[in-house]
Amino acid sequence: MSYSLYEKNIQEYMKRTGKNIRAYEKNSNAVLEKTKDNYYTVKINESGREVYIHSKYSPIKEAERFVEKLEDYNIKTVFIVYGMGLGYHILELIKYLHKENPLIIIEPNEGVLSKAFSIYDWTPLLRRDKTYIFTGTNANALKLVLGEFIDISNVENLMLLPFSQYHKIYSVFYEKVIEEVKNYFSLFKISKNTKEHFWEQFNKNFFNNLHSIFYQRSINDLKNQFKNVPAFIVSAGPSLDKNVKELKNVKDKGIIFSGGRTLPTLLNHNIEPHFVVSMDPGIAAYHVLKDCADHKFPLITTVVSNDTVISEHQGDVFYISNSEYRGLVQYFTQRDMDILPLGASVANASLAIAVYLGCNPIIFLGQDLAYTDGKHHADSCGGTTLKEDDDLIEVEGIDGNKVFTNSVWHTFLMWMEKFIIHNPNKTYIDATEGGAKIHGTDIMTLRQAIEKYCLKNEFIQDKINTIIKAKKIGYQDEKLQRLLMNLKVDLEKVHKISSQGFKEAHQLLNKENTDEKDIRRLNLFETQLNDLIKRNEAVADILLRIINDIDTNNEFIEKMNESKEEKCRRLINRNVALHKKIEDTAFNINKLVQSVIDQDIEIIKIFQCSISFV
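Structure (tokenized):
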């Protein structure tokens, strides 16, 4: 064992992870032994039996066999290796990876990693971009690491590789690893499917909401305005009817957030929320709210939320931006508008909003996320009962017993627990008094939570009114018209470029011998599009969304060791898909832009007539 080599690795590992594994060396059950071919294996004592991590004969050949199993991966594939051992298989795997491939290595036994650090220089691997060596069996810490590497662009491009007997030796944690990977897959798969399903609806909503976005307020106006004010997030779970009346005692001592489904219930109990939150892009958001759609409570929503909800709303609006519409928002408003991690439900979004506003503690009610008493929702919120064909998942309840949830609610629950892990400096209270346990929350009744945390008048309504009055925007419809006309002109250019690009790429599909000259010709169209992207941030938003979707599609990602012919064919197919999508999108959005222009012209005429009359 080389002490200087060991220290070098330890220092680099601490720099990357902040974790000191020296302490594990003394208490380690890992022992190095020479192999038949003069390398090392490592022996551990696990549950009273001795186990060798590597082959006692030839760990190098074992490593080579490990990588022989690799297939169907590309330069964006995320590799998750369960078991570091002494790392022979990792060194072999690295030979096959592209610099763009993320690599997560999970070593449950810190003592084994300590031994690996004593026999080889791992600093190049530790310094490699997109690489992390996770040690131990802390599931929450693992969630944070996985969250650094897995996102919506690669969630369908993961490869989990258990090494040797690790999945048997450390089977309990291996099951946890599988569970967490599946959880991330479910979370991002839902997000991805939602985005694909609502692609046209998002665009329609944005431009139909544009006049309101232009004149109304940004979520930034509320940032940290309510530090250490208790927040109550009201959801429509079956348990809501047990304790909703207690909210009458909150008054202005805490902020009440309501979704559309729970608003009638609150109003029926003479409880007025401070904010109503609506996120859904589809018409379902309006259907749950329609009986109270003309309410005047401040609405917190996104720029792509359902346009009918926003057009019917009679009060003030605070808008949250969307990662794929940031440039469009900036182009039209020239204002900052933050993007928040909103999850997949109104309760998820309300949690993120409450933290953004500075609230503390965050108190949940009606957040069953389970079939409490066999019901979907509270009776006051149009509750329905459990059906035989509902997909049931068993989870822990707040009392430690098992309760049933479904795959959708389970996704909401997982998102909420991950958010709490990422935002540990708040107190989270589950005052639902029923349903699934939300890990990271304290359990208490709603009455107890109100008595403990609602101790003084926070003058919340006065603060909200002051913020609203301070952010009034004057008449600027002519400016909006100019911006719309400029965007329309550039989108017509985009449409023309991609129409020609699609035509030429499609012709190449039937050409027998394609070469790099053909690809260079196609690249000219993308170069022209890039010039427009650089010049107009709204166009950039629209096109980069499409380019990103195409470039994260496994069909168009560069394959390892692909031939020149395979590369040309892949790039031609990419151009066909890219230009067809851009051509169609530019055409459809231009129709939406023209519609807003026409509506705005009528508003300008009315405004000018009113001035003339005065």
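Residues 604-614 have pLDDT under 50 and may be disordered. The CA atoms of residues 252 and 461 lie 7 Å apart.
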